[in-house]
Amino acid sequence: CYIKTVTDLEQLRSPNKQNYIFKLTNNIDGKNMYWSPISDFTGTLMGNGYSISNLQINSHSSLDSNSFNSGFINKNNGIIKDICFKNITLDISATDYTDDFRQLNVGTVAAINLGTIEDVHLENITINSKLNHKKDQSKSPKQKNTTGGIIGTNQGSISYCSIRNSTISAS
């Protein structure tokens, strides 16, 4: 599948196209649109040296499961390579109302990487990530905020990647 426009980019979330190869054929400008993260990606995204730029990812939620994930892709089980993400803003917060263990995973490319990310470059990225605990403050909250520029949590492979002119804030 060839990706020429931001509308074409929506194909990455189609369950009918799992394990497909997607190839960027142009720079994709989101024009500051709000991007809803792709929940689970299993295909191959080949950037061919092009970029995806000007996206906003905003998510504010109560934690009702053990983890909350946010990024361009929430969980990468595929391959993402030879692409640049520019001028992307992530503003993510989650509130936990329990004493159970909770984890917030935030990353520009993927919140959780179980696949391969190779030759991916980030430029002018802004990430604000906050995990709130609203239960008994005298107890030590069992929370973990794993926020990173490229990925939040990695259990896969990352190589030949870079990030520059970016700000990451996590609490």
Sheet-strand content, in percent, reads over 45%
Average pLDDT value? 88
The description of the largest β-sheet is: 11 strands, parallel
Overall, the morphology is: globular
What is the number of beta strands? Answer: 18
In whole angstroms, the N-to-C terminal distance is: 39 Å
Elements, N to C (H/E): EHEEEEEEEEEEEEEEEEE
What fraction, in percent, of the residue positions are helical? under 10%
Task: Explain what you see.
The chain is an all-beta fold. The chain has 1 helix and 18 strands. It has one helix spanning 6-9, and strands at 2-3, 21-24, 28-34, 38-41, 44-46, 51-62, 67-70, 73-76, 79-96, 102-107, 110-113, 116-123, 126-133, 143-148, 151-154, 157-159, 162-164, 167-170. The strands form 3 sheets. Strands 1, 2, 3, 5, 6, 9, 12, 13, 16, 17 and 18 form an 11-stranded parallel beta sheet that branches. The N and C termini lie far apart (39 Å). The mean pLDDT is 88.
Layout of helices and strands, plus pairs?
Layout: E1 2-3, H1 6-9, E2 21-24, E3 28-34, E4 38-41, E5 44-46, E6 51-62, E7 67-70, E8 73-76, E9 79-96, E10 102-107, E11 110-113, E12 116-123, E13 126-133, E14 143-148, E15 151-154, E16 157-159, E17 162-164, E18 167-170
Parallel strand pairs: 1-2, 2-5, 3-6, 4-8, 5-9, 6-9, 7-10, 8-11, 9-12, 9-13, 10-14, 11-15, 12-16, 12-17, 13-18
What keyword list fits this structure?
171 residues; mainly beta; 11-stranded parallel beta sheet; 4-stranded parallel beta sheet; 1 helix
